[in-house]
Request: fold
Amino acid sequence: MKRSGEEEEGVRPPAAAQAVIPLGLLFLVFVRIGLSGFGGAMPVLRHELVEARRWLTPEAFVEIVGHGNIIPGPNVFNMAVFFGMRARGLPGAAAAALGLVGPPTAVVLGLAELYAQVSDLAVARDAIGAVAAAAAGLILAMAVRMARTLSGLRAIATAAAVFAAMAFLGAPLVWIVVLGAPLSVALVRALDR
Amino acid sequence: MSDPGPLPGFALQVALLSLVAIGGLGPILPGLHRLTVEEGGWLSSEEFAVLYALAQAAPGPNMIFVALLGWRVAGLVGGIVAISAFSLPAFVLAATLEKARARWGGLSGVRLVECGLAPVTIGLVAASAWLVTTAAADAPADYLVVAVSAGVMLATRLHPLWPLSAAALAGGLGLV
Reply:
């Protein structure tokens, strides 16, 4: 079915031939984004949607990133849902989300079964201990990279307070977010403008 | 009907945590650790870190780590249930937000909310780094591995698979 009046602002028609992105193609493009997104799917997502397929304008992409930041859930996943929804409504959102997450889930569960086969071997036990430490290093690097973007006393103090509440006071995560997030937004409103 | 076991309760907790996962998985790692290691006892702290490494090594968004935790709770079915429970709330919220944007045209205050949420997310990711490091490292050599791995990620554009496999090799050879 073709409803050519359906495109939203920011969604470019895919080439001149057809006005509506086929659901199957939408699914496949997100399968590709999911499976090639080693350590961060965002650059691949941008490349596919903005440059390769030209489905989104650069401005619309930036806008979608912003929206992904204000609701919970992984950014890339939220953006897949936004884009799918914008292009083809609820079926489009479902196709994009399933394409992004389905195949990587199958791959990682397969790896997990393999891991279960070898994890009792002595040599594997030694290797696993070291991999655990290296994984901690990856998270540390992510924290440092994000912390570098903090600027101003307000932002640094907020991050430090959240860190202390979680790491040292053992405050429940849900409460930190439910109370801390609105408080932090209110602070921005009061201090930064 | 047979006893459903811990899976429904686990899925509910995962869905709840997903609602506070602003910006992604990083901020809720301490919550997932508390749920699966400290309270559930389904895996050790070390296994938690190893499964995180496995999720990093596999292609795809790092939210697939949640499938691995579910796998540890209840096998393959557990994995699929966990990733679904984690995705569904975000799916509903994102679809609703997009619908609202299309109806009312543009969203005001997005920048303001982004600015407010960023430091909260960063504080939580820093706490994740702290908790996972103290859980995974108990000897000085372990801290060295943490530091080298973090240093490599910050100083180079190498894929995370490199520090992870180098660590596996060093550990397997008994070097660390």
In short: Chain A has a mean pLDDT of 84. The CA atoms of residues 25 and 95 of chain A lie 9 Å apart. The first helix of chain A runs from residue 23 to 36.
